[in-house]
Amino acid sequence: MNDDDRMLVPQPSPEARRWAMFCHYSAFFWFLVPMIGNVLGPLIVWQLKKDIDPFVDQQGKEALNFQITFSILLMICGVLAWILIGFPLMALISAVALVLVVIAGIRANEGKPYRYPFCWRFVK
């Protein structure tokens, strides 16, 4: 994509960028509701605000997919905890997820779409 193509892509409105950022940051609802809050937060924000802008819809799906993937990985780590490898993996995955969520929220607030690496996309 060259500079001329970037100028043709409409920039999301400030409201759309804000709600897209909230889609990512609502994963921190996990601190209030352990185990499912990280999925419920993005799901609720996405469902309530997906119709205001395609950018919010796309970023909401991305945040939800990542949190589902993260939850599955944590469940696998829980099983692996029986052989003790699960605990360090859980800490590593949680730290990486924290960093990726912060980066995604910043990018969404800038109006730039973000795609999480290492993410299964269940919600299309």
TrEMBL record:
Membrane-traversing stretches: 27-46, 66-85, 91-108
Primary localisation category: membrane
Subcellular location field: Membrane
Lineage top rank: taxon: Bacteria
Coiled coil spans: none
Pfam families membership: MamF_MmsF (PF09685)
Keywords from the named record: Membrane, Transmembrane, Transmembrane helix
Membrane topology field: Multi-pass membrane protein
Identification of the protein by name: DUF4870 domain-containing protein
Annotated source species: Stutzerimonas nitrititolerans
